[in-house]
Amino acid sequence: MYRLIEQDGRAKSGEFTTVHGTIQTPVFMNVGTAAAIKGAVSTMDLNAIGTQVELSNTYHLHVRPGDKVVKKMGGLHKFMVWDKPILTDSGGFQVFSLAGLRKIKEEGVYFNSHIDGRKIFMGPEESMQIQSNLASTIAMAFDECPPHPATREYMQDSVDRTTRWLERCKKEMNRLNQLEDTINKKQMLFGINQGGTFEDIRIEHAKRISDMDLDGYALGGLAVGESHEEMYRILDETVPYLPLHKPVYLMGVGTPANILEAVDRGVDFFDCVYPTRNGRHGHAYTNMGKLNLMNAKYELDDRPIEEGCGCPVCAHYSRAYIRHLLKAKEMLGMRLMVLHNLYFYNHMMEEIREAIRNKNYKEYKKQKLEGFVRSDMESE
């Protein structure tokens, strides 16, 4: 259940109550694709850096270790030792990214495993069954993430199919939640809005899925090659047609600036691999922009990644030491970078929630963005 606490313009902050705890929004979900954050970050670490929601991936866990294995181990929460909410992505985006290995039909998608090449079929019912076995807090509906660019005709056909698949997902989830051996009988379902950069297709689809009274709504098929400006335009046009009193999730986005702009357009939930992936490659997020610790100028820099940062990394380690670890390819270097970056994202979301609830979000956003830009110019 979602309770809207405050609105500041289109920006909104609320509480989303689930069987695994209450999520304060806006929220950034820390991405642990295969039930682990890349960079040797444990669930104890996630608790220490203020993580509210962990996100895992249906396709990857189905392929390895197998969703039935996870079910036998008591579900994803027990398996990975995490007692807070987990969202599982439906596998639709992975199918999209496996373009060379797939065939889309009305019943679902036939494709080959990226690990051993074996043939896999996944449709709406299979995706719901896998996610039910995983016993996540929130399951995502199975959809097609159309390529960008796509023709109008392709996009309309794809969106219509995604709507039919959503109806099948809802029906199957209702069935699964009533079975005796289902681990999480209160699993929630989010539907996904598609339509590429065609405003009218997006709006019509938003209206259709809103009528289905789901637990939440996501915007998919963005950040797949279109410009930031196009993405913001689609959010401006589409979000008003999604229910105000339900969470709105922008999938796979993004940079701190993307998040600030999307919050201003009414988005509640975010996820992205940037803080972990960039961290593993030596890029640290700060209020003064992104630092590349591989640069020679940090070789003798005894300051923390960011002065005043409350993360466990900045409390103890210098830029020089972390740079040394990264250069030496020591796993600790990646771990420290990922921890700092996830803390930065989680803490920024706390600031965002506070700014909205204090009704000064526009000013907060302006100051934050100016900090990023100023520093990027200085560090070039």
Distance between the termini: 46 Å
- Class of the largest domain in CATH? Alpha Beta
Helicity, as a percent range:
40-55%
Given the helix and strand composition, which structural class is it? alpha/beta
Low-pLDDT regions: 376-380
Specify the CATH homologous superfamily of the largest domain.
Queuine tRNA-ribosyltransferase-like
Structural domain tally: 2
Q: Please indicate the percent range of residues in DSSP E strands (runs of 2 or more).
A: 15-25%
- H/I helix tally: 14
Overall pLDDT score: 95
The strand count comes to 16
CA-based gyration radius: 21 Å
Main beta-sheet strand count, sense and barrel state: 8 strands, parallel, barrel
Strand order, main sheet: write it out.
Answer: 4-5-6-10-11-12-13-14
Order of helices and strands: EEEEHEHHHEHEEEHEHEHEHEHEHEEHHH
C-alpha geometry: globular
CATH architecture of the largest domain: Alpha-Beta Barrel
The fold-level CATH name of the largest domain is: TIM Barrel
Catalytic activity: 7-aminomethyl-7-carbaguanine + guanosine(34) in tRNA = 7-aminomethyl-7-carbaguanosine(34) in tRNA + guanine
EC number: 2.4.2.29
Region (RNA binding): 252-258, 276-280
Cofactor: Zn(2+)
Task: Give keywords.
14 helices; alpha/beta; 19% strand; 8-stranded parallel beta barrel; globular; TIM Barrel; 2 domains; 380 residues; 42% helix; 3-stranded antiparallel β-sheet
Structure description:
With 380 residues, this protein is of the alpha/beta class. It folds into 2 domains: 2-272, TIM Barrel, CATH 3.20.20.105; 281-379, no CATH class. It has helices spanning 43-48, 58-63, 67-72, 76-80, 92-97, 124-134, 152-176, 199-210, 228-238, 256-263, 274-280, 319-327, 331-357, 361-379, and strands at 2-8, 11-18, 21-25, 27-31, 54-57, 86-89, 102-105, 108-112, 119-122, 138-140, 188-193, 216-219, 248-250, 269-271, 283-286, 289-292. The protein has an 8-stranded parallel barrel with strand order 4-5-6-10-11-12-13-14, surrounded by 4 helices. A 3-stranded antiparallel β-sheet has the order 1-2-3. Strand 7 and strand 8 form a beta hairpin. The protein is globular and about 60 Å long. Belongs to the queuine tRNA-ribosyltransferase family. Zn(2+) binds at residues 309, 311, 314, 340. Substrate binds at residues 89-93, 143, 194, 221.
